[in-house]
Recover the amino acids of this structure.
C-alpha cells in the first residue's frame, strides 16, 4: 500500500484546522509536521505492524560472537531468530547465562542476546546462516515527499486530534473520542495475533557440532 506523503498530510491537516484560506504565511508548518511525526512514532510503538515485518541474514564467522543489526532494525522490535543447520531452520532463543559464557567450546549457536550488537552462544564452529525477523522502524518522515510508513489515516486522525486540542478548537474532544475508538479497535484486532513463528525446535535444544 502506498501511503500519503508528509506534505500531503500537512496540507490536509492545515485545511481541517481552518488554515487553508490564510495561505502558507499563516501556517506553522514545523508545528504541523511535529504533530504528524509524533503521531507516526506513537502509533508505531503501540502496535505490531505486520506490513513492516522483514528479515535479514548474517553468515557467522568461526569464533565470532557479535554481529551488527540491520540499519532499520531496532532490537526491541526483534520478533524471531533462526539458524540454518545445513538441513533445516532451527529457532534460536534469547538469553545467555554467565555459565554459558564460561564455556568456550565452539558449536552451532542456539542462543542470543539483544545488545548494541547481537551476541550469539556458543561461538560458531563453522559458517552458518542466521535469519532475524523484525519490525522495520519507520522510514524517514521529515521531507515533503517522505511517505508515511504505517496507516496514514490513523496518523492523520491522531495528529488532527492533538492539533485541535492544541489550538483549543471546540470539536477537539469529539476527534479524541474517534481516535480512542479506532485505537481500541486496532488493539482488539491485534490481540492474540502473534507473528508467525519460524520455529524448528524447542527451548531445550542443546548446541551441537555441525555435521560435516
Amino acid at each position: 500500500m502506498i501511503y500519503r506523503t508528509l506534505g500531503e498530510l500537512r496540507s490536509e491537516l492545515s485545511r481541517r484546522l481552518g488554515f487553508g484560506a490564510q495561505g502558507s504565511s499563516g501556517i506553522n508548518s514545523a508545528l504541523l509536521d511535529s504533530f504528524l511525526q509524533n503521531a507516526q512514532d506513537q502509533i508505531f510503538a503501540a502496535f505490531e505492524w505486520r506490513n513492516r515485518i522483514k528479515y535479514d541474514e548474517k553468515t557467522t564467522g568461526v569464533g565470532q560472537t557479535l554481529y551488527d543489526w540491520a540499519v532499520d532494525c531496532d532490537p526491541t522490535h526483534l520478533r524471531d531468530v533462526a539458524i540454518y543447520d545445513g538441513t533445516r531452520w532451527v529457532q534460536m532463543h534469547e538469553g545467555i547465562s554467565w555459565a554459558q559464557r564460561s564455556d568456550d567450546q565452539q558449536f552451532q549457536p542456539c542462543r542470543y542476546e539483544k545488545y548494541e550488537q547481537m551476541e550469539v552462544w556458543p561461538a560458531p564452529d563453522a559458517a552458518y546462516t542466521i535469519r532475524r525477523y523484525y519490525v522495520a522502524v519507520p522510514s524517514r518522515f521529515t521531507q515533503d515527499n517522505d511517505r508515511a510508513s504505517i496507516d496514514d489515516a490513523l496518523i492523520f486522525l491522531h495528529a488532527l486530534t492533538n492539533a485541535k486540542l492544541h489550538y483549543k478548537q471546540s470539536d477537539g474532544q469529539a476527534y479524541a473520542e474517534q481516535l480512542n475508538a479506532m485505537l481500541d479497535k486496532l488493539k482488539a484486532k491485534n490481540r492474540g495475533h502473534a507473528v508467525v513463528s519460524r520455529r524448528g525446535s524447542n527451548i531445550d535444544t542443546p548446541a551441537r557440532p555441525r555435521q560435516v
The chain is about 30% helix and 20% strand.
